[in-house]
Amino acid sequence: MEFIEWLGVNFIGLFEAGAEVFKGFISGIIPLLIVLLTFTNALIALIGEERVNKAIRFSSKNIILRYSVMPVLSVLLLTNPMAYTFGRFLPEYQKPAFYDSAVSFVHPVTGLFPYANGGELFVYLGIANGVIKAGYSQGPLAVRYFLAGVVVILIRGIITEKITLTMQKRRLNSAEGGN
Hints:
mainly alpha; PTS_IID_sorb; 0% strand; single chain; PTS system, glucitol/sorbitol-specific IIC component; transmembrane helix; 8 helices; transmembrane; 179 residues
């Protein structure tokens, strides 16, 4: 009988704790996310969607820009998962590398731009809370996360593009009866 009573109290306690977290989100992070998303959409509207697309097309022509600027802009402007649609500006052999870069950036972006990937925000906030409890500021962590993310996506994009090209050459050679 005691177990059933304990289960009832603790079961509802789980939902009460969840409700408290939810109330914190409503008064804290959700308004921030809405304002940031509104700002980004307003910025795109002011610049013009065609100009944004032109900038993306320009960045797709250079390997460094293709796997640094292009994924960053796609994640910031379109958020996850729409960010991957910027791959439409690339030839087929570059799409896997762009996807690898963009998907690798949706976590490091959350410190500075939490609206870009709300699903990863909980992971970042968990890390940030530990940093704050250790006596450090969350700001430098967010900036370092972002910058490290840009370096990582650049490396991943270049390597994935090279791997994709190698695999396509092998497939072409085997289809032609070569080695």
